[in-house]
Write a structure and sequence with these properties.
Rossmann fold, 7-stranded parallel β-sheet, binds NADP nicotinamide-adenine-dinucleotide phosphate
Amino acid sequence: MSGTRFEHKTALITGGASGIGLAMARRFGAAGARVAILDRDGKALAAAGKSLRAEGIDVMEVECDVTSEKGAAKAVGAVIKRFGGIDLLANNAGITQRSLCADTTAAVYRKVMDVNFFGSVHCTLPALASLIERRGTIVVTTSIAGIAPLYGRTGYSASKHALHGFFESLRTELAGHGVKVLMLCPSFTATNLQKSALDGRGGINTGERGIPGGEDTPEHVASEVFRAVAAGKRILVLSRTGKMSYFLARFWPALYERIMTKKIRPEFSR
Ligand SMILES: NC(=O)c1ccc[n+]([C@@H]2O[C@H](COP(=O)([O-])OP(=O)(O)OC[C@H]3O[C@@H](n4cnc5c(N)ncnc54)[C@H](OP(=O)(O)O)[C@@H]3O)[C@@H](O)[C@H]2O)c1
C-alpha cells in the first residue's frame, strides 16, 4: 500500500470506537478508505460510526470482543464480505494494567494478554489471506512499554513486547508476499484507556499516574500513522519522551531504568 490516497481500499481498525482507533478511522476515511470499526461496546460503536458517516466516510460498525477467536473470525469475515477484502488491518484494541507485580494475580495478567496479544492474533489469522491477496499492511498498536520496561505495568508491558515478537516474526513470513507490518509505539496519549485500567485484583485503578513529557493527541498519532503507512515504515516511535526512551533503553538500559523508575514509582506510594 503506498501513496497518500486510499480510495477503493478498506481499513479494518480494532478498538475503532475510541481514542487512537477512532482517530485512525477518521484519518484513513478522510483519504478515501472504506472503514470498518470493530469494538466491543455497541453503543460506543454506533456513536463513532455516526460521527464518521457525518464526515462522508463509508463506515461499517462491527461489534466484537477480540478475546473470542470465533467472534473475531466472524467479524473479519463480515468485513471481507461487505467490502470485498482488507487492505489495512490495524490491531489496536487494548486495555492497560497498573499494579505492582507483588499485588497482581495471574488472572489479571491473563486478561491483559487475552485482549492485547491474543485479540490481535485472533483478528490477524482470518485476515491474512486477504491481506496477502491485496499486498496490504498490518498496523500493530504497541507502546513505548513494548520496546522498553515500564514500572508498575508488568502485564501491559509483557503483552506489548509479545506483539513485537509475533508481528516482527510474521513480517519476515509476509515480506515475500508484499505485506508490510508497521509497529506503532505511541507514548502517553489522551484517550479513554486509563478509565478502565486494571488494578492487581481485576478492579479499576482510579489512582493518579505520572505522565512524564505530557500527552500526545490521538489525532496527531493517527496522522503520523497515515504517513508511516504510506511510506511503508516498519516502526513508528512517537513523542520526544518516547524516542528518548527507545534509544536509552537500547543503549543505556540501566540508566533508562533508573530515570523511568524515579519518574513513575511515586504513583505507587501515594
Ligand atoms: N493512550 C495511551 O497513552 C497509549 C499509549 C501507548 C499505547 N496505547 C495503545 O493504543 C491502543 C488504543 O488505546 P487508546 O489509548 O486509544 O484507548 P481507548 O480510548 O480506551 O481505546 C481502546 C478501545 O479498545 C476497545 N477494547 C478493549 N478491549 C476490547 C476487546 N476485548 N474487544 C474489542 N475492543 C476492545 C475499548 O473498548 P472499551 O472502552 O469498552 O474498553 C476501546 O474502545 C491500545 O492498544 C493501547 O494499549 C495507548
